[in-house]
Structure formats: structure tokens, C-alpha cells
Design brief:
Helix content is 54%, strand content 0%. The radius of gyration is 23 Å and the shape is globular. α3 runs parallel beside α7, α7 crosses α13 and α8 packs across α9. The chain has one domain. The protein is mainly α.
Length: 315
């Protein structure tokens, strides 16, 4: 296996381009490998790893990934289907309720990584319905949140009719079949709708078509990576306590006395369980309100600082 080393010289005038994430996205061969894997491989472990990598890279490399947006949408179509049902290797025709992938087009020259090739002996049984874990589902959620924050009109356009969207963007099929045979009609919308139903209306959906959105490259000058991530989560109505849940480790219960205290009746503690829960929920709502207001002020302040007035009233 060939090793690729990224040299990251620090540029104090543009620290974003000095980050490993930006250098990774700017490496043509690396990104080609990641996209081919996300589009063609059926290994569940490899897909989760590649998608996590793309989620980490995306906020740092929005201008670089602008010309890859149609491919990002195809990955989204695979991801929202994979979120509910894992991939299966070719030949398991008797399995139901799974996500299938057509073979790659001959022009791709790609050897598909399967479940059996990446983890021998761990392939599912014929009658087993393969469910995704909570962490894997969260990766898909974060990917959708980032895509909606960056290119919402393209997300909507692709969801409505994937074959028509890809034909409009002149994307050649990467599979041995045409685009209208990759997904059943309406399946992408059915899988994505529950994930996006609570999202706020993005202004770009009103001001840009999917094609016009791809031609507007100057808007990325407005955002630092951290500001872009904050904006994306604000648009998705993500609560503060769950925004970074994917990166949290479960707390270890090392003190056995804590478990005993949980069994103490409410008559002994003197405080009913429902009152304690109400206090906790009230505190979470207060923190969420403060956090949302802080994000709103940051965005309003930055937009007002960057935008120039276009109309002057004279008396």
C-alpha cells in the first residue's frame, strides 16, 4: 500500500489553508480515493470511516469542494439509505430491507471493497436485517447538516428528483446502470424527509437555484470553519446539549453507591422524581436559549460588518 504524506507549511496570513483538513481536501488523489470509496464500496466499516473523514474535512474546504457538489449529493443519497439499512455484498439476493449498490461502471476501474474483504467472517446472515448504530446515524446527520448549511438548494433539488438533478448537472453515471435505476422513485425523499423536517428555511433556497448556488463562490469569504459549523447547526435547530454528542464518550459508573442512591424511594429523598426532571429540563431550556441568542448575535454582527449599504437616504 502506498503511503501519502501531507506537508502542511503554516501561513500566518491564511491559517485555514495551513490546516491538515484543507491540505487533505486539496490533495486530488486522496479526495478521488475518498469519493470513489463513498460512491462504490459496499463495506460498512469503510463507508462509516470515509464519511466521518468527509464530515471533518468539509468545513475547511468549501471552495475546493464546490466543483464536487453533485458527487456530494450522490454520497448523501447513499448515506440516508445506509443510515437505516446497511450495505450488503453482491450476491445476497435473498436479503430484504437492506441497501444495495449497483456495480461500478467499467470506466471507473475500481475494485469494490466488500464486507467480506474488509472484515472476514463478519458478513451478515442471509436472514439478518442489518441496522446502523447510533454513532453511524449521527455521522449521517452531521453530513446532512453540513451539506444543507453549504448548498441547501442542491440538497432540495437532488432530494426531489435525483436522476433529473444529476442530468441537469451533467454528471455521468458512476455505476453500470443509469441514474434512474440507482434509487427507487421517491426513496431518497422518504429517507431524508424525517431528518430535515425541523430544519429552518435557508435564505439560499430563496435567492439561488441549485445551479446559481454553485456559481456563487464569494460567500465562503464570510465564514471561518467554526462559524460555518455554528451556522449549520443553528439552521438545523440542533440543541446545544446534542450538537457535539457524537464526540462525547459515555460516562463510566465507577461508584456503586451512585446506583444505590438511584433506588432510594422518593419518600426518603423528599423530592418527587417529576419535580427533579422539571428542574433539569428548565435548566436545559435556559442554556439552549442563551446559546441560540449568542449564535444569532454573532451571525448578525458578522453579516452587518461584511455587508456594505446599498441605499442612502438624504434629507
Amino acid at each position: 500500500m502506498q503511503s501519502i504524506i501531507l506537508a502542511v507549511p503554516y501561513n500566518p496570513e491564511d491559517p485555514v489553508t495551513s490546516t491538515p483538513m484543507y491540505q487533505f481536501a486539496n490533495h486530488e488523489e486522496l479526495m478521488k480515493l475518498v469519493f470513489n470509496s463513498l460512491l462504490l464500496d459496499t463495506s460498512n466499516q469503510l463507508f462509516a470511516l470515509s464519511l466521518s473523514t468527509l464530515v471533518s474535512v468539509l468545513p475547511f474546504a468549501l471552495p475546493i469542494l464546490q466543483n464536487r457538489v453533485p458527487s456530494l449529493m450522490v454520497v448523501l443519497g447513499r448515506a440516508v439509505c445506509w443510515r437505516d439499512r446497511h450495505f450488503v455484498d453482491a450476491g445476497r439476493s435473498s436479503m430484504s430491507a437492506v441497501t444495495r449498490t449497483p456495480p461500478p461502471a467499467p470506466s471507473c476501474h475500481w475494485t469494490v471493497a466488500t464486507n467480506s474483504s474488509t472484515a472476514a467472517g463478519s458478513s451478515p446472515r442471509e436472514s439478518e436485517v442489518v441496522q446502523s448504530t447510533l454513532i453511524e446515524k449521527r455521522v449521517v446527520d452531521l453530513y446532512l447538516i453540513n451539506l444543507y448549511g453549504a448548498w441547501p438548494s442542491n440538497v432540495i433539488g437532488f432530494t426531489r428528483n435525483p436522476p433529473e438533478y444529476l442530468a441537469t448537472q451533467r454528471v455521468k453515471p458512476v455505476y453500470a446502470v443509469e441514474w434512474d435505476e440507482v434509487w427507487e422513485p421517491g426513496v431518497v425523499a422518504a429517507r431524508l424527509l424525517p431528518l430535515i423536517v425541523d430544519f429552518q428555511l435557508h435564505p439560499s433556497i430563496i435567492t439561488f437555484t441549485s445551479t446559481g448556488e454553485l456559481q456563487d463562490e464569494k460567500r465562503w469569504d464570510k465564514y471561518e470553519p467554526s462559524e460555518f459549523v455554528s451556522m449549520c447547526h443553528l439552521m438545523s435547530n440542533t440543541k446545544e446539549d446534542s450538537m457535539f454528542e457524537f464526540f462525547k464518550m459515555p460516562a463510566a459508573r465507577l461508584d456503586p453507591r451512585a446506583q444505590e442512591m438511584e433506588r432510594v424511594p422518593t419518600e426518603v429523598t423528599g423530592e418527587p422524581d417529576d419535580i427533579g426532571r422539571l428542574k433539569e429540563e428548565n435548566e436545559l431550556l435556559r442554556l439552549e436559549s442563551l446559546y441560540s441568542e449568542r449564535l444569532r448575535k454573532q451571525l448578525v454582527h458578522r453579516e452587518s460588518r461584511l455587508c456594505t449599504p446599498v441605499l442612502t437616504l438624504q434629507t
